[in-house]
Design a protein that fits this description.
The protein has about 180 residues and is an alpha/beta fold. Helices cover about 40% and strands about 20% of the residues. The structure holds ligand AR6.
Length: about 180
Amino acid sequence: MDFDINSRIDIFLGDITSVSCDAAVNAANSSLSGGGGVDGAIHKAAGRKLYEKCSEIIKKIGTLKPGEAVITPAYEMKTASNIIHTVGPFWKGGNFKEREVLSSCYENSLKIAADKKFDRVAFPAISTGVYFYPYKEAFDAAYETVSRFLKKNEFPKKVIFVFYEKSAFEYAKKKTGL
Ligand code: AR6
């Protein structure tokens, strides 16, 4: 356990749209067209302008590939100033680079946050909903990637892992000792 890094990590059980942060990360899809789960909650909180911004981005880049990340303002969302959209891997059993792609989601989102010198970034459990990534393996990859990044970078100052399901939250609590 790394106490130093853990002082820059929080875990939270609840809705990501209620967490105060400079950027909330969205588990989006490749067309940034909105959807259910965390994506639906974020779009609902941010309002129409977020859809418009997302389609403007897609017109430019075509598609956001799994593992990539882009930033937008958070518009009407009261708790966050920005949204970092990333596309997680769809779980196909573990032999299709799922871990590598999931790590890229965290790493590329953190690179944007570090570049912008954000203090607080909130992550949902990317891919663990309708993309079927098992929550324990997903957190193992997320925690390792975030810890490695924080060791090397001053920003973001704090990463908040947000869980919607108690089982995943309990697992993270046990694994981190937080
Ligand atoms: N706050 C925090 N976590 C949440 C919330 C919330 N409001 N709502 C759900 N979760 P998912 P994915 C948790 O399905 O698997 C969308 O339709 C949820 O319990 O949102 O990456 C996109 O458009 C789960 O643990 O994302 C994509 O098409 C985690 O967030 C697709 O789903 C991720 O579940 C992405 O699938």
